[in-house]
């Protein structure tokens, strides 16, 4: 392991284990130390240990464990919404309540944890392109759902005798794939918000909101025997998603 690689690893572990201010101080200390050090790579590992071992003694247990709990809860909320897209939950008050609880808890805790004032700086590279695909795909899924349910309401016999029926069977599978991808992306955003820039939490908020929409669609699609009610519910149950967009905007400020 070269000194540059060792310092980069120390930096990542410091940012993961320590609050930002402390992590920056540790990184600066190691950067200064290694710049003037003539020890070999093997000697560095012998004296300091692995990058994680070098950082771990500097970690305050309460602070680090608190972050791990927050990370576990936020991850569970995202994975919970993603799991619903794979599950044929019936459309009832309990199902809709669970979706709202997972989404709301994820947004509130992430907002409390990551919304900190920082000096103005350019947005992190790669953040903006990550903000758009998930809501675009979720909105597309919502629009396609509305179109399919409207077809079922107006002429179910025509749907059953056309190419639309195979599409109806394939559409929930597409939502499952999106649910899996979005679930992985919200975890990625959490890690980036911790080790890079807290504004990556905006991607988490957008991902959670997109999962919220997909989970609602999954549940509502179990009730196509009542398409009129589903058409109304498609918009009524997904309207709160606008709050997720607001939270993402707050993270970017």
What is the total domain count?
Answer: 2
| Rg estimate, integer Å | 23 Å
Distance between the termini: 38 Å
- Biggest beta-sheet profile: none
For the residues shown, what is the average pLDDT?
84
Question: Which structural traits does this protein have?
Answer:
78% helix, 13 helices, 253 residues
Task: Please tell me about this protein's structure.
This protein is mostly helical. The protein is elongated and about 80 Å long. It starts with a helix and ends with a helix. It contains 13 helices and no strands. 78% of the residues lie in helices and 0% in strands. The protein has two domains: 3-58; 61-252, no CATH class.
Concise summary:
This protein is mostly helical. It contains 13 helices and no strands. α5 packs parallel to α11 (201-220) and α6 (93-114) runs antiparallel to α11 (201-220).
Chart the SSEs and their pairings.
Blueprint: H1 3-17, H2 20-35, H3 41-48, H4 51-55, H5 61-84, H6 93-114, H7 127-131, H8 133-154, H9 156-160, H10 164-195, H11 201-220, H12 227-238, H13 241-252
Helix pairs in contact: 1-2, 5-6, 5-10, 5-11, 6-11, 8-10, 8-11, 8-12, 10-11, 11-12, 11-13
């Amino acid at each position: 392991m070269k000194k540059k690689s060792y310092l980069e690893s120390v930096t990542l572990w410091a940012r993961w284990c320590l609050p930002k201010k402390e992590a920056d101080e540790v990184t600066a200390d190691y950067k200064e130390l290694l710049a003037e050090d003539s020890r070999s790579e093997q000697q560095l590992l012998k004296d300091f240990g692995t990058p994680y071992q070098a950082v771990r003694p500097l970690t305050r247990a309460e602070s680090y464990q608190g972050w791990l709990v927050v990370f576990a809860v936020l991850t569970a909320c995202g994975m919970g919404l993603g799991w619903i897209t794979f599950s044929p939950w019936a459309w009832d008050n309990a199902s809709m309540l669970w979706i709202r609880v997972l989404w709301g808890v994820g947004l509130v805790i992430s907002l409390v944890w990551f919304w900190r004032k920082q000096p103005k700086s350019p947005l992190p590279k790669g953040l903006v392109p990550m903000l758009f695909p998930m809501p675009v795909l979720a909105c597309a899924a919502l629009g396609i759902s509305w179109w399919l349910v409207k077809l079922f309401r107006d002429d179910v016999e025509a749907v059953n005798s056309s190419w639309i029926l195979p599409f109806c069977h394939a559409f929930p599978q597409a939502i499952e794939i999106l649910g899996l991808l979005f679930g992985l992306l919200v975890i990625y955003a959490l890690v980036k918000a911790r080790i890079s820039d807290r504004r990556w939490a905006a991607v988490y908020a957008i991902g959670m909101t997109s999962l919220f929409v997909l989970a609602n669609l999954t549940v509502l699609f179990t009730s196509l025997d009542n398409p009129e009610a589903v058409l109304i519910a498609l918009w009524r149950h997904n309207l709160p998603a606008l709050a997720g967009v607001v939270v993402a905007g707050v993270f970017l400020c």
